Amino acid sequence: MLYQRSSQLCAEAEQVIPGGVNSPVRAFKSVGGTPIFVKEAKGAYLYDEDGNKLIDYINSWGPMILGHAYDPVVNAVIERAKKGTSFGMPTALETEIAKLAVSMVPNIDKIRFVNSGTEACMSAIRLARGYTNRDKIIKFAGCYHGHSDSFLIQAGSGAVTFGSPNSPGVTKGTAKDTLLAKYNDLQNVASLFEANPNEIAAIIIEPVAGNMGCIPPSDGFLEGLRQLCDANGTLLIFDEVMTGFRLAKGGAQELFGIKADIVAFGKVIGGGLPVGAFAARNEIMNYLAPLGPVYQAGTLSGNPLAMAAGLEMLKALNNDANVFKRLDEKTAYLEKGIREKLEAAGVVYTINRTGSMISVHFDASPVTDFQSASNGDNDTFKKFFHGLLKEGIYIAPSAYETWFITDALTYDDLDATITAVEKVAATL
Ligand code: PMP
Q: Which of 118, 195, 367, 412 reaches 20 to 30 Å from 290, CA-CA?
């Protein structure tokens, strides 16, 4: 495959945009080469500026659960745009999507829409701090909750891919209120509570981690966090920006049967438009302005185009009783195929998967936390990535990312992917 035009476009972009990209994970810095410039996408496929067709396993980092340019979403956006693109005033549409979201997700009474997952998580911890009147939060090494200051402490995703899990620019004052724990290590979390009695406002966690590759919670881990929170008057925040409306209608809360106090959403809830949201039961949400003292706002929050897109997306997921089962089956099929091919080629690997989130780590030992995720062989990953790309398969350009499976993938696409893995595995 040729990437001449992408290379030219990247060089041009680099003159006026830092690194040529508006979000670092899009750059190919850790795998080498030129980021691919997309021209358009439909269903499971990307079409780039050089005329290549790629099977997409990023899917806009999650939201394209039903495929790119999903007709009901596209049509809703077109129709809505004709009636005005922003008012900064309430619309009936916002209530409609809020009602639907509240009906799909357990343990929430009210929801507020924002413009990104970053905003959702940032607002969720402010609300937790205001509600509990405490300052500290616990986050897990390798988890990513957007780029707001409190979270850029041992952060995953692009922050770790590009070597700045603790970003310069985050003040010591802010950093001291973020306590760092090991994913899947309850004892470690318990010791933070012992060392900081009555000071911890919230634990924030990706209930299935997706930003250090995919790492599922070990048995009893989320239950243990729930108990620790209850025992210490601390709120449990599930960052469901990736898992929400993907692992189940009600996200990880439903899948694992664990109650969170605040839930953050992103991506999916906007059907690919810039949307995030956070939600909780009444007593917590009523703490927000204009009802309560915790301030949070946004000119474009609840934007009509974004709400129209999100509503169609949620309706489609809510009305299709089998979509999550289909996604799980497709991903299980892919997992089985990849395992067989890597094993046959004698490649050392670990695959982690929960539902339609999956990742391949090039290391034999179990990958259960940030430390074990960091042990993967990045040289092998680079070869794997570029080998797949040559075969027309596009996975995230970093070993610290998860593959997101879309229902638009056919079993032929999955077979083509498995065959590509077989070819590439022979070269590793
Ligand atoms: N939380 C999680 C779990 C995420 O994966 C992301 C983005 N990948 C965010 C928060 C931040 O969302 P956004 O990029 O929309 O700001």
A: 118
